[in-house]
Amino acid sequence: MEHKVITHWKGNSQFESDNPSGKTLLIDTSVEDGGYNSGLRPKAMMLSALAGCSGLDVVSILNKMKVDISDFRMDTYGELTEEHPKYYHTVSVEYHFYGDQLNEDKIKKAVDLSIEKYCGVMEMFRRFAKVNTSIHYHNK
Q1: Strand order in 24-27's β-sheet?
Q2: Which of 17, 24, 110, 129 is the most exposed place for a label (fewest CB within 10 A)?
Q3: Is 126 helix (H, G, I), strand (E, B) or coil?
């Protein structure tokens, strides 16, 4: 399977990029770096892709397990190399689950399945970065 994305320069440091679903997003940089600060930054977008990929897996698995949660959030951090080309050498993904009487065993299983088996973006990141994960339960 092949995905095709078209990214079109909109002037200055701004680009508009499409997605195989037909949705678009803006890519830009800070005003200090010559942009309009109007869009997502490319490296940070990679962290969003990682969280989104794993999050979709986790929610799908939890739904199949009939596990109720009231909220779910992922905090994703990337540490860049000092030298150019700068890339993430270490990435941390914190999974935060909120709810009443959370089923921690099933939640852990869902997260582990995403991390170890299903999330292709996670696997891509492992090719160039150390990936750390943690799960945090917030019972009401």
Answers
A1: 7-11, 14-18, 24-27
A2: 24
A3: helix
How far apart are the C-alpha atoms of 78 and 82, rounded to whole Å? 13
Architecture of the domain defined by 42-139? 2-Layer Sandwich (3.30)
Domain boundaries, the chain: 1-40, 42-139
2-19 pLDDT, tens per residue?
Answer: 999 999 999 999 999 999
Residue 140 is predicted with a pLDDT of 86
Predicted TM-score of the model (pTM): 0.93
Residue 118 above 90 pLDDT? yes
Dmax of the chain from CA atoms? Answer: 51
